[in-house]
């Protein structure tokens, strides 16, 4: 039996890479964000440990380092949330299945605890099929053929009757290079 080739696509780890993080002064919020970062890192390590036990070839890559279409893999596993899966979808066509792992699901008790101080919502993970609680089972079901991918509709975009080769799942941006210029377009 041939080993399956997997791509493990990861949300970045370091919140300090963004300028927004340096502007946060609320100690509760900083602690909350650090806990989220740790939760994400732990989920990534957990998924990597599971993959090391499976008869598969896999390679990790940070989503920010994607620059070429994803091909020559049998499955993409995204670890992050819906944003990570959506970003992956821009680099994939329908021939590559993808499974999302929500690395940091929202904790209701935390949202209630901090509701007056800040928004403590974490990842919704609506598009994600797994968390750390069920990743191994979901992966086993996929690898052993007990689960098959759901087909999702993709958005095709034509500009001046020319089909664009982008792979949009649920979002496209229509904008003029100069934001102050009037844009004209039609939808069908």
Describe the protein's topology.
Blueprint: E1 4-10, H1 19-22, H2 27-52, E2 56-62, E3 75-80, H3 82-89, E4 98-102, H4 108-113, H5 135-143, E5 158-159, E6 162-163
Parallel strand pairs: 1-2, 1-3, 3-4
Antiparallel strand pairs: 5-6
Q: What summary fits the major beta sheet?
A: 4 strands, parallel
- Uncertain ranges: none
Mean pLDDT: 82
Bin the helical content: 25-40%
Assembly classification: single chain
Give, in spatial order, the strands making up the sheet with the most strands.
2-1-3-4
Output the number of helix runs. 5
The helix/strand class is: alpha/beta
DSSP summary, beta strand count? 6
What is the molecular shape?
globular
Distance, first to last CA: 46 Å
What is the element string, with H for helices and E for strands?
EHHEEHEHHEE
Tell me the β content: 15-25%
Computed Rg: 19 Å
Short overview:
This protein has 188 residues and is an alpha/beta fold. It contains 5 helices and 6 strands. The longest helix is centred in the N-terminal third of the chain and has 26 residues.
Distinctive features:
6 strands; four-stranded parallel sheet; ATP-NAD_kinase_N; NAD/diacylglycerol_kinase_sf; single chain; globular; alpha/beta; NADK
